[in-house]
Amino acid sequence: MFVRILLFILTSALLWGQSATTSPSAADLAKQMADMNALIQRLQQRVDELEARLGSTAAAERAGKPEIAQANQPALPASGQVAPESPAISNFLRGTSINTLVDTYYGYNFNDPIGRVNRLRAYDVLSNSFSLNQATVIFENAPDVDNGKRWGARLDLQFGQATETLQGNAANELRPEVYRNIFQAYGIYVVPVGSGLTIDFGKWASSLGIEGNFTQDQMNYSRSYWFNFLPFYHMGARVNYQLTKALAVNYWVTNGTQQTEPFNNFKDQLIGVALQPNQKFSWTANYYLGQEHPDVMFLPNSTNPDLPTLQGEPFLPIQPSPKGKLHIIDTYGTWQANPKLTLALEADYVIERLYTNSSPSRAWGGAGYARYQISPRVAIAGRAEYLADQGGLFSGTTQALKDITFTLEQKLVDNFLLREEWRRDFSNQPYFYTDLPGALKREQNTATLGVVWWFGPKKSPW
Questions:
Q1: Are 254 and 264 in contact (CB under 8 A)?
Q2: Is 64 exposed, middle or buried (0-12, 13-18, 19+ CB in 10 A)?
Q3: What is the pTM of this model?
């Protein structure tokens, strides 16, 4: 109705303007009236069409059919169109996730050890302390080959006591402060060869040993001796190829074990196979060859101007540099015996020399695991392990180490986990701290409550 009134006003104004400026003849006036009437008819037809379209749009919206309402909208002029989202941005955002983990614990060591130190523990390192094991943020964009996306990347930022164990130890890194909070950072590309050749380049968590970094993916809260002993991470390139649906092969070239920057010019290598014939059983076997002795030492307080420097930090070459090799044979398997019972077994053999003609140090043994799901939110788990440390390769003392662990798990809600754990470590040598300096025991017993939260769309394993 408003549009029709507006047309009438405009028409009257035009006629008034014509009559105010000229005095047309009767014939001219009749022609102008005919032209104006034709124009009004065309405008009226257009108004009727627009009103009909607006009416059908409103009806479609009331009926809950937005696609019809959208189709009835008049096209925007070119200057008012909104640019579509860039395909590059769309591809980047598709599949990107942010995941967070907060892992805390309270533990008590019945030896009441001096300094509250639990020996041979990778993560639960303190007694009688409310502790932050780790706080982690994971940024991940995985490849999606089925949708034509062959690349991806992952970044894990880690903070807390686990960071000091994994990243901040000067025995692992020549310059640990440079990489202290970067647990993983690597890019992925799936080469279109056969079933797909996956290549990762960067820093990643080691898959030597059955246990891993993230507590919610493990059977127990505390980690085994073998997790503590075997490599935590590597920097380099790794390749995975799926030969069949059941069999995959892996090959790595790395700077070393726990070495973001290399100790020396030798590049460590791994070759491994992973077998999974069905959903109930998996088995992995790895052989790792390395050279883990540095050929330089950093001297941060040196004032000798003749020393070479790396980013301003002086260092001294070690002459002659030790070139003894490290050999690791690692194998483990998991069997889902029934929907509630999971069994796992690991076996390892490690041998290392300082120099090529040195006497070797060895460590060998393994661990057995069992987990039973009592109810959807309650489970129990146990671990028994043995590590023969010949030459003190792991602990610094020749001894036979054993651990027995029992864990009660309660998942109160999704992504919130409680684990109550009792563990006994024991040896054939006095090794574990007591409340007196220099007084050692052959055993330590600990009780631990672990509390773990994790958030984000990423599913296990992390």
A1: no
A2: exposed
A3: 0.78
